[in-house]
Structures are given as C-alpha cells and as structure tokens.
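To illustrate the input format used throughout this study, we show a single complete record. The first block contains the structure-token representation of the backbone; no residue identities are included at this stage. The design step must infer an amino acid for every position from geometry alone.
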C-alpha cells in the first residue's frame, strides 16, 4: 500500500509540466489548482483517522486505495480547467485519506513486529514515488500522452499492489467515544511534532510538484531531463529510509532529526546557489537524504502517544505534516509568482533549519516504550 500510494503520486508529479502546458497554466494558476489538491487531503485526514480507529485501518486503506486509482484516471481525462480542479480535489482527498489509514496500519505492524520499522515502510512510499516518476520519464522520452500514461501506469501499479494487500490482517478496532469536532489540530507535545513534520513535508511536496519545473527554468534542462529530478530525490529517500531505522537506533530520534535537517538545508542551498543541472540534481539528492527520516520519526512519536488513540494522533499530526506536503506546491507557486522560483526554493532552507532547532521535540521519553 505504501508503494501504491507513492507510485500514484509520482505518476502525477512527473507530468505536471505537461499538464500545465496542456491547460496553459501560469505559476499562479497551477498554484491555485494544487491548493485544491491540498484542501482535499486536509479534509480527509480526520475522517480517515476516525474510520481507521472505528472500522480498522487495513480495511479503510484497501477501500480508499481503489478510489485513489480512479481519481488519477479522472485527472487523465479532464477536458477543462474546471474538471481538472474537481479531479485534483478528489485526488488529494483519496491520497490523504489513504495516507493516514496506511500509517495507522503500519503502526499496528510495527507494534506486532516489536522493533522500529516505520522508516522502512516509508521507504516503500518513496520507492513507489520513484517508480511512478520514472514512468513519467519514459512517457516523456517516447512522447506518450498524459491520458494513456496515467491509465496504463496506474492500472499496472494497482494490479500488483492490491493483490499483495489482500494478505490477512486483523486491525485494532477501538471505541472512539462521543463524536467531537471533525478537524483537530494536535495539542501539546503533538503540536511540536506536527510542526516538525510540516517543515519536512512542505519540502517534499515542493519537490514533487516543482522539481521538474525548477530544472527547466533554472538549469535549462529539457522536459525529459527534468523528470529525473524527482526520480533522484525519491531514490535518495528510499535509500535513506531503508537505513533510517538503524540510524535512529544509533543516534536517537533527536540526533537523527538534527542530522537530517542539516543535510536538507545544505541540499537546498546547492540546488539554488549554482544554477547548473548537475548541482541541482546533487542538491535534490541531499534534500531527499535529509527529508527521509523526519516523517517516520514524527509518525512513530505520534503513534506512541500515551494520551491519544493512534488513528486520532496520526490524523492530527498529518493535518500539519501532510498538510505541508500538499500546501508546499501552492506556496512555492505563489512565492515564485511574486519573486522567482529560485528565491521561492530558499524558503525550503529556512524550514529545514527549523527542523534542527526543534529536533528535541521528537524525543520518545514521554511516549509509550514499545520496544525493549
């Protein structure tokens, strides 16, 4: 499920320049449409968390995944800007809903296994995103249109992953108590955890939707070359997340977060400061290395909270965390419209530095100790 979620998002991200060209979108137009995608995701977070606690995370994940595939088809066949806007809202809603549910499921699996593995689960998302973005590179190279690319790639990804997701699993089902407000921001220590996740995921979202355009405008890359930007970023995320659990055990959550934030800051400065294709790719790789461990650390901390149910805690942290993932693209779009794309990317360096400053908030001392 992590691979499928990443693959569908990577398929979309790799063809954003082509979508923008098809509909003749300015940076502000594209930013506004991406804001609708973000709104759909944010609306789905609390609902997915509540249903995951009440119905079971595995069941919710599988059902939302099928709808998620369908929304990519809607983007592929959208005939007008209005239809594209509606499709992107639904795409964001299913992406966000699946994200919360599958992370609750992953937390259940982590408790069952009895050792930290959340980073490895998130590596599978990055692997899927890299494969999806790689399909965009192939499609651009061989001049395959957006519609056949989206439909064929999404169908293949879904056929493989949904078959594996049929494995038997009994999710925890909990009584969530009287219905309260649907939208809840994290409180207390969880708010700080959510803000750290926001700083990281805003950078991830910006990379997903703007890396290709950044390479075209800042380094003179072709559209085919530009599709490699998110692929390199995703490969770095996969490698680092596969190593992340071991690094966290060695350095601790706080030390791992400080290292990650520092590397991400350097990566942004490399991408922006030199203006060449090679250095931009190097910067993207370092950004992937830096961002890789932050979300797994934040989600493990949230799932371990002693006072809030896992589904509710992850939904609240996701409201800030993955809200950043989806708000990043429109924020960069509006900043680019006001200044330039290179100046807009410097905002990511500021947020990466904030991760270093706030890293102590990821300490697990006040959360449940699941692992002996």
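Output of the design step:
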């Amino acid at each position: 499920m992590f691979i499928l979620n990443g693959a569908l998002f990577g398929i979309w991200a790799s063809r954003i320049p082509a979508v923008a060209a098809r509909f003749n979108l300015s940076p502000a137009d594209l930013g506004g449409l991406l804001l609708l995608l973000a709104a759909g995701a944010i609306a789905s977070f609390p609902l997915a968390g509540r249903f995951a606690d009440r119905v079971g995370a595995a069941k919710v994940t599988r059902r939302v995944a099928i709808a998620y595939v369908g929304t990519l088809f809607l983007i592929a066949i959208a005939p007008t800007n209005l239809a594209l806007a509606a499709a992107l809202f639904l795409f964001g809603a299913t992406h966000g809903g699946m994200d919360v549910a599958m992370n609750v499921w992953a937390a259940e699996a982590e408790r069952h296994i009895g050792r930290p593995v959340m980073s490895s689960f998130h590596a599978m998302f990055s692997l899927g995103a890299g494969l999806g973005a790689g399909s965009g590179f192939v499609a651009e190279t061989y001049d395959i249109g957006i519609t056949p690319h989206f439909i064929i790639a999404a169908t293949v990804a879904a056929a493989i992953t949904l078959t594996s997701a049929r494995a038997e699993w009994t999710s925890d089902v909990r009584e969530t108590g009287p219905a309260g407000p649907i939208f809840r921001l994290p409180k207390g220590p969880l708010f700080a955890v959510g803000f750290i996740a926001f700083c990281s995921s805003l950078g991830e979202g910006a990379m997903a939707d703007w890396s290709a355009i950044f390479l075209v405008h800042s380094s003179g890359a072709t559209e085919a070359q530009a599709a490699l930007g998110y692929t390199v970023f995703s490969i770095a995320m996969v490698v680092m997340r596969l190593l992340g659990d071991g690094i966290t055990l060695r350095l601790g959550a706080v030390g791992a977060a400080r290292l990650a934030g520092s590397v991400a800051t350097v990566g942004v400065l490399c991408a922006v400061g030199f203006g060449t294709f090679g250095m931009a790719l190097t910067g993207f790789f370092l950004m992937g290395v830096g961002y890789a461990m932050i979300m797994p650390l934040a989600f493990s901390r949230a799932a371990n909270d002693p006072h809030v149910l896992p589904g509710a805690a992850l939904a609240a942290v996701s409201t800030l965390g993955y809200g950043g993932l989806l708000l990043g693209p429109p924020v960069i779009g509006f900043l680019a419209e006001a200044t330039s794309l290179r100046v807009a990317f410097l905002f990511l360096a500021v947020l990466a530095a904030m991760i270093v400053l706030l890293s102590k908030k990821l300490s697990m001392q006040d959360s449940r100790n699941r692992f002996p």
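Structural context for interpreting the output: Confidence is low (pLDDT under 50) at residues 366-372. The domain at 2-166+186-362 is CATH 1.20.1250.20 (Growth Hormone; Chain: A;).
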